[in-house]
Specification:
The complex is a heterodimer of chains A (354) and B (291). Chain A is mainly alpha-helical and 354 residues long. Chain A has one domain: Orthogonal Bundle (ABC transporter involved in vitamin B12 uptake, BtuC). Chain A has helices spanning 2-7, 9-27, 31-55, 63-80, 85-107, 113-131, 164-187, 189-199, 201-206, 211-237, 247-261, 268-283, 291-305, 316-325, 331-339; strands at 151-152, 158-159. Chain A is globular. The two termini of chain A are 20 Å apart. Chain B has helices at 2-32, 39-56, 61-87, 93-116, 140-162, 164-174, 176-181, 186-208, 218-233, 238-259, 263-277; strands at 130-133, 136-139. Chain B has 11 helices and 2 strands; from the N terminus they run ααααββααααααα. With 291 residues, chain B is mainly α. Chain B has a domain at 22-217. In chain B, a hairpin with a 2-residue loop joins strand 1 (130-133) and strand 2 (136-139). Classes of the chains: A mainly alpha (354), B mainly alpha (291). At the A-B interface, helix 6, helix 11 and helix 13 of A face helix 3, helix 4, helix 9 and helix 11 of B.
Chain lengths: 354, 291
Amino acid sequence: MKNLLLGHRRLIGFIVLAVFFALVPLWVDSPYYIDLLIVLMINAVLAMTFVMLLRTGLISLCVAAFWGIGAYSSAVLSLKAGLSFWACLPLSTIITAVAALIIGYVIIRNAGFTFVIMTTVLAMLFVTVVGNIQWLGAYNGISNIPAPDPIDLGALGSIVFDSKVDFFYLGLILFVIVILVINAFYASWAGRAWNAIGLNPRLAQSMGVNVFRYRLMSFVVGCAIAGLMGSFYAHYQTFIIPTAFNLFPKTIYIQVFAVLGGVGYATLGPIVGAGLLSLFNELFSGFEEYSIIIVGVLVLVVVVFLPRGLLSLGEIPARIRDWRSRPGGGGGSSTKVAREPDTPPGEAAGSGSP
Amino acid sequence: MSVIMQLAFDGLTIGLIYVILAAGLVLILSVTEIFFVAYGQFYMWGAYITWYVVDRFQLNYFAGLAVAIVATLVFGLAGYLLIFMRMQRMENRFLITITGALGISLILAQAVLVVFGTQPKSIPGVFTGAFDVGGVHIEVKKLALIGMGILVTLALFWIYERTRVGRAMRAVALNADVAALYGINPRFVYLLTMGIGCALAGLAGGLLAPAYNLSSGMGNNVIASVLLMTMLGGMDSLLGAVVGGLIVGQILSFGQYYTGQMSVVYLFLFIGLVIYFRPNGLLGHRTDMGV
């Protein structure tokens, strides 16, 4: 029994977290905080896609741009083509994936500085391009995006999306699905290939991993997830403006969420980072224009002193134990063997997600 | 015909400012291998400090320029000593240094609003007057910018190619560990490069201040163009920065006139095409930088 519990620690932690989130609206009735939580989930997912690309050695600063492509395609499909949200959601995901495939095919040729620069410029271009197309509402954006159609449950009545709590549950379901999908990818052959590329692209290539193809795959998957969240965001917010998807500050914040929590923790890191930063925004909202400066200083402090993220604080006891057992001779290796069953298969170095 | 000449002249003026900016960024990128996104903010601070000294203390423009250069130099040195020096030996330094630079960028961009306010600023021109040559309207202040741009670029090339410091920079850019074996202190070279790069950004901002208006978004606006230039010319080539800056200056000048704001899109498509066929840029050599 004990072994069973330990073996599925990640899964149990995940279920507990999901249930905890699902129960939040029972004791939080202020729409303001529900809104904060919805935004937090969107931000956490975007940061997760950033981490996903990072696994393959790609630092993408255009996560927000693909989020915006998802939001805009969904808004256009529902307003100009009259489709329902339930059709827009998958369609906009596919549109974003196709866009990512085309763009990624050109810019993933070499990683490193070139890729970062290309994505930086793409992120800025998105705002300029959308802001100059009258058909997309230019800089005024698109408003009056309809809420999702009610779901008819037959005898049980129907779910109508008219309050923030309904959107919260919809967002939570998407959030859980996205986390499961991301973890399924990490556990699959593709995820291992990504990790191998992240560790050493040339070595991975010599082992028969097609580096370009797997990088492109992670780019497309990550951007498609961002597009899915964009569609949800557009229908939740009911209006979108191009500057919301800009590099400054949106993508910067996404990267900051990931790095604050710790990029080694694929799912928990972004959640912790996004949660912490929105908490700080609440705490420092009284300082008004100084709050961004405080956030910047916080980022620098964490990055300089805890480069592996805040969650790496949790590793300190284990490290001390390792360090203590080392002079004993062979003690270090025996503890490692003892801890082996805890890590499920598919878990590669440093990915301690829930 | 005169329109084309006029556009070429304006493109040359802004292109030489871009050359200074791109050269500073190329130095930072190739020697320290830090993806320094905060670079645009240093340019903005250079312009604002020049404005502040000239406007508040009623000092000479050149005094303002000198203060701007010194201040951005000190910012750059402090940034390296406090933040980047600790990061360069870390395992995932590429990501960590980018995040650090983004943090600096957030702080500096917001600090400009807090310190100087949101109103657009301008300072009285130092060089006034204009004359026409063959239908081209040539303003003396733009001519002065061109002169300064050429002077600074030549000085930079002299430092980089002819002096011991420049040789140390090139050695560290090639391989920091081997350079250390030959008695060069890489950390000192990194520090120096960071200082020089940031001072160049401040200088470019200060030079621009009397000719154009200052706004709090100028740092963010310029960084995309500067990054594109370094990529076009090659990220480890100073000559590439010059070529990239001049080409981008012309494209933006003509593009703004004929297509308005969409000119950035055409610029991006053009550079994407160049990068697709020459991944290292026109004059660059290295592909694996930063990874």
